[in-house]
Specification:
The chain is of the alpha/beta class. 40% of the residues lie in helices and 21% in strands.
């Protein structure tokens, strides 16, 4: 039965809580009476609830509907080896569905969006893989660069998907490329038929440890980075480190910036790996190497990527929709979005993030959270990883404007993650203008130089 309450304004309110049960094909409300629903008389019970409130002014309903996303992040070597079915079937968690698919004589159908530069390298191998496995496919190669990260490209993808005619539940779109490609395809999939499953296959180090393992999708809009987007995770992300061997050296450094972010925020051990062996990872591109480095290259690469992914998932999984705006993973992302867009395309994403982090290290030092030795170790590590530590466009004006924008979009608080020693951090809201200015002055005095840190190699 419903309970009658007297609201603060004296109006009588009758509240009733309903469970939702399914009998055959029909969902029905059942009043909560303090007892569990007898599951023998219903087919299923939803986790959702409906709360009905009646007053003399009318009726209102409050719906509480828990939404659970399950997705896999799987490392698998040789994804494009025709004998490896991970790319086609690795996302399936239902054993019966998997068995039925393997027995079926019907061809598997897949729509693949791939970065056009990646296609130049792996297009023939991808085509061979799909044809050997009797897949009915379409490959769409696109220039997925930061400059092209727009709704226009999203609409281009959904038009092609619509023409190809996918099953919206059983035939996931596959995205193969860097973070920009994964973001664009994720948004296109989330819009088509309101939610079409998709799979992420990162081909850059940055995407491997960052873009591929979370739920965010998006495109740039109104000259702002990722201003349009959604929180819809892939059904699976398949990670193959062998893709990284064809990535230019600068892009390896680019990915190492996001790895360093997690090290500074929460894992001293990862920082020490990057400090001591980061240059080896850069030289070997996270691959096995029989040269002067010996045989421990792949072991170190695996350890570093494992820690980076695990620490990232620790932060993302409990806060997938960013309900909590206090996020350690925002370190390096307070100023970098504006900086990256201002100088586009001269800075890669990880480079802009590292410049942001470099400045924030000075803020942390001026705030008394880092020693001079710790500050210098971090900056030296960044330089060793061949990352830029300063940029002339990162002015005090840009910093102040970025932090003001941060206040608007973060509930009125700046929520600034700062390192507290190596591998520890906290989030702060009261960093003074004096500290910000003093840090910027010292940052410029010590790190500005005419050397170009962003040369291709």
């Amino acid at each position: 039965m419903g309970k009658v309450h007297l609201k603060d304004n004296g109006i009588k309110e009758k509240k009733t809580e309903f469970s939702l049960v399914r009998v055959k094909d029909t969902w029905k409300c059942r009043k909560e009476r303090g007892k569990k629903v007898n599951r023998d008389t219903v087919d299923s019970v939803s986790a959702a609830k409906i709360f009905e409130s009646k007053t003399e002014k009318g009726i209102s309903w409050t719906v509480v509907s828990p939404i659970v996303f399950t997705y896999k992040v799987t490392e698998s070597r040789g994804l494009l080896d025709p004998s490896n079915d991970t790319l086609l079937l690795g996302h399936i968690t239902d054993s019966q569905q998997l068995e039925d698919l393997k027995k079926s004589t019907e061809p598997i159908k897949r729509f693949v969006v791939i970065d056009q530069e990646v296609y130049k390298i792996y297009g023939a191998k991808l085509t061979e893989y799909l044809e050997t496995n009797n897949v009915l496919y379409k490959i769409l190669a696109l220039p997925t660069t930061e400059e092209n990260k727009s709704m226009e490209m999203v609409l281009n993808i959904v038009e092609e998907v619509n023409s190809f005619s996918l099953d919206r539940r059983t035939e996931p779109i596959i995205a193969i490329g860097g973070g920009v490609c994964l973001d664009i395809v994720g948004l296109a999939a989330s819009l088509y038929r309101r939610r079409t499953p998709y799979i992420r296959v990162p081909t850059t180090l940055l995407a491997y440890i960052d873009a591929s393992i979370g739920a965010k999708t998006g495109v740039n809009f109104a000259n702002c980075k990722n201003k349009l987007g959604a929180y819809i995770p892939p059904v699976a992300s398949f990670l193959d480190l062998s893709f990284i061997k064809t990535v230019p050296r600068r892009h390896i450094s680019n990915g190492l910036a996001e790895m360093l972010k997690m090290a500074l925020m929460k894992h001293r051990g990862l920082f020490e790996i990057l400090e001591e062996q980061g240059h080896m990872l850069l030289d070997t591109k996270f691959q096995a190497d029989n040269s002067a480095y010996g045989n421990n290259c792949l072991q170190t690469a695996s350890q570093a990527t494992y820690i980076a992914i695990t620490t990232m998932l620790e932060e993302l999984a409990p806060n997938l929709w960013e309900d909590d705006l206090n996020r350690l993973v925002d370190f390096g992302h307070l100023i970098s979005p504006a900086l990256e867009m201002k100088v586009l395309p001269s800075l890669l994403h990880g480079e802009a993030v590292n410049i942001d982090m470099s400045y924030m290290v000075y803020v942390s030092k001026e705030s008394g959270y880092l020693t001079e030795e710790e500050k210098q170790r971090i900056i030296n590590c960044m330089v060793e990883l061949e990352l830029p530590v300063w940029h002339e466009a990162c002015t005090m004006e840009l910093i102040q404007r970025s932090l003001q924008d941060r206040l608007k979009h973060s509930g009125g608080l700046v929520r600034m993650p700062l390192p507290m020693g190596l591998g520890q951090s906290e989030i702060f809201n009261e960093t003074s203008c004096e500290i910000l200015h003093r840090a910027h002055e010292k940052w410029c005095d010590e790190l500005s130089n005419p050397l170009d840190n962003n040369s291709e190699s």
